Amino acid sequence: MDFKVTAMDGPARAGSIKTQRGEIHTPAFMPVGTNATVKAVSPDELMDMGAEIVLSNTYHLYLRPGDGLIEQLGGLHKFMNWPRPILTDSGGFQVYSLSPLRKVSDEGVEFQSHIDGSTHFMTPEKAIEIQSALGSDIFMIFDECPPYPSTREEVLRAVKRTTAWARKCKEKKSAVPKAEQSALFGIVQGGVYEDLRRQSLEELAPMDFEGYAVGGLSVGEPKPEMYEMIGLMGPVLPAEKPRYLMGIGDLKDCLTAVEAGFDMFDCVMPTRNARNGTLFTSEGRISIKRAEFKEDPAPLDPACNCYTCRNYSRGYLRHLFLTREILSMRLNTIHNLHFYIEFFRKMREAIAGGAFGEFKSRWEQVQW
Amino acid sequence: MDFKVTAMDGPARAGSIKTQRGEIHTPAFMPVGTNATVKAVSPDELMDMGAEIVLSNTYHLYLRPGDGLIEQLGGLHKFMNWPRPILTDSGGFQVYSLSPLRKVSDEGVEFQSHIDGSTHFMTPEKAIEIQSALGSDIFMIFDECPPYPSTREEVLRAVKRTTAWARKCKEKKSAVPKAEQSALFGIVQGGVYEDLRRQSLEELAPMDFEGYAVGGLSVGEPKPEMYEMIGLMGPVLPAEKPRYLMGIGDLKDCLTAVEAGFDMFDCVMPTRNARNGTLFTSEGRISIKRAEFKEDPAPLDPACNCYTCRNYSRGYLRHLFLTREILSMRLNTIHNLHFYIEFFRKMREAIAGGAFGEFKSRWEQVQW
User: Fold this and answer.
1) Do B326 and A323 count as a contact with CB atoms less than 8 A apart?
2) Is B327 an interface residue toward A (CB < 8 Å)?
């Protein structure tokens, strides 16, 4: 993996990550493909809209269908028919957010499957093994992600464990020949405690990961605290590595984070909202079920060039949504993802043109 | 509309229907697009697989979103982004099969909406008005479709009403300028009573419809009775007009009906089965959820060239089905519809090559 910053506009930066499976232009938005599919769209549609990387979930794929099965069928790229890069999270976040029961020790996390209640033990080593079996291009370390609110002591313990697990992940990865071509990113924890965030980064920085992520945000803390942490971390994460803000995809949050120097984002927001009939347009969010769209012959967003906007009216999309047709979820998802990917492309253009500040303040006025 | 028989093999025939919106090769299978969408697939996918016509439902579209709305938005073709021919049924069958309450008189049918319980009155004239508003290429007359079992008297009354309504439909259609370019098909009723079937046809034949359908089969009667009616009607329906067997799509039934001289078919079987994980292959039906497919790297049907079979393994399709992913329904639907459309193309080839009997007996040995 090779990362280059190609333009800067203040701390905001545009760049390029080169991987064996293709180039990723940053700032990049990664559509989420939890179960080895980005919900409601095909890989061809993702490529058509210019998606350069997708994120997939180690926790989910480990439980179902199993990483061994995916490896046997040729790896995750072949399994899901997606030839471009894949980043896999490590399962750290899901073990905390989805499992009904868990027991954390220094060795790892014992947890119950949210699918069938079966008991599993996830360790840093196992998280690497799974990501190797999947054949991911970018691995994430297995981290401990405390909920909000947590006490300083709880968060400190999680920071220390994350550091210890990060080391184990790095060691394990270098021992797996199959993982050689893949990158490994560290994850900074520390909750909303400024000193713990700094401590976490200080402990991880010497390990020289190929990228650095900030985890444990957008887990319930107030927005000002989240923004404070984004503003704190952006400038201090290693400048020569990609900086990834995990799980955050509200467009205003992305603008704030890009301004602080972040490069990579993932979020279910465009896909989940699409299935709920909430659509992003150049004039703000709309809910397609609203009566005002009943007889509306216009496309969702007259400024958009996606397949949905080129071919269908708001009146038709409202009808599909109200009749709960499958095509509704697909056409809405195509639009929302296209909107996100275009939004990020325009951010890169603005950075390259030295106009990111202007871009940001213009989009901050839109009603999301 | 212009219909030509281009080849015959016994009573089985291959032909071509030319409409203002394109040609339909017969025997033809029409995918069902009830709510102005063929469930789970896009119009582009339908065109890619060679679908030449789709069926849409007057009853459903009248109730939701309303034929007036569709007309206002440019007609059904534009609304659903499907440029090729559309056949609309008249709502006669749905009024009987879906409405929780109905009252039939010589004027029409008062019925309750299965969506919101509201009361509506459907008449032959109104069925034509709706189909005109939709901009359908092939209209169906509004018929009375009695359930099975019904007494001879009940069926006789339905035959007489269907005849009277057929006349009203024809008159109404000739009075609607917008409907001039569209065809109107009659529907023969008569249940499983041979003499009533003959009577229904004798009454409708002089009205010179542009095509003749057989309705009221596959409504619960035993297969031998259905086959008897198919064998009875095929040879006596006007030879110079398309012959349409409504709502029947089991492939063995289609083979039997083509052998008897039928040309057109519609059925939700390939689409509904796809969503339930039941798939048609050259070796018979399979249920994709079965454990034997868990680690199977082969495509659904090695003999198939559809998008699904070219790109995905059985193992992946089983995983998508078990995780209830939307892509599962789409990939399965693409395969099943492609299989049907190819099956019908091969039937036409067999008829043209004088080998339909051989084709039929070969496929009858497959486990459907």
Assistant:
1) no
2) yes
Distance from CA of B240 to the nearest CA of A (A): 38
Tally DSSP H helices, then E strands, for chain A: 15, 16
Q: Quick check: B267 and B28 in contact, CB under 8 A? A: no
What torsion, rounded to 10 degrees, do the Cα atoms B302, B304, B309, B310 define?
100
Cis bond before residue B43 (omega within 30° of 0): no
* Cα-based distances in Å from A117 to A63, A111, A112, B106, B177: 11, 9, 5, 61, 65
Nearest in space to A185 (alpha carbons), one of A230, A228, A215, A219: A215
Averaged pLDDT, groups of 10, chain B, 368 residues long: 98 98 98 98 98 97 98 98 97 86 94 94 97 98 95 97 98 97 98 98 98 97 98 98 98 98 98 98 97 98 98 98 98 98 98 98 92
Torsion of CA A348, A350, A356, A362, to 10 degrees: -110
**Nearest residue to B341 (alpha-carbon basis) of B270, B293, B288:** B270
Q: Which of B42, B79, B325 sits opposite A316 (nearest CB)?
A: B79
Residue A139 and residue A163 in one domain: yes
Q: Give the pLDDT confidence score for residue B98 in this predicted structure.
A: 86
Instruction: Say yes or no: A291 contacts chain B, CB-CB below 8 A.
Output: no
Q: Is B367 inside any structural domain?
A: no
Note whether residue A195 is domain-resident: yes
Please state, in angstroms and rounded to a whole number, the distance separating the CA atoms of residues A364 and B101: 54
- DSSP sequence for B168-190: HHHHHHHT-GGGTTSEEEEEE--
As a whole number of angstroms, the distance between CA A177 and CA A84 comes to 21
Q: Which residues pair with B54 in a beta bridge?
A: B86
Residue A113 structural domain: 2-267
Whether the CB of B323 is below 8 Å from some CB of chain A: the reply is: yes
The reply to whether B44 falls in a domain is yes
- Output the pTM of the full model: 0.98
Regarding whether B339 and B193 lie in a shared domain, the answer is no
Could you list the active site residues of B? Answer: 89, 266
Taking CA atoms, A291 is separated from A102, A295, B74, B119, in Å, by: 46, 9, 19, 22
Q: Which residue of B has its CA nearest to A40?
A: B326
A244: tokens are: 């990834």
Residues of B in contact with A319 (CB under 8 A): 35-36, 64-65, 69, 79
Show which of B219, B238, B267 is a domain's final residue. Answer: B267
Which chain A residues touch B297 with a CB distance below 8 Å?
Answer: 73-74
Q: How much of chain A, in percent, has pLDDT values that exceed 70?
A: 100
- Contact (Cβ atoms closer than 8 angstroms) between residue B264 and residue B27: yes
Find the closest chain B residue to A327 by CA distance: B40
For residue B152, give Cα distances in angstroms to A179, A266, A337: 75, 66, 59
Q: Is the dihedral of CA B344, B346, B350, B353 positive or negative?
A: positive
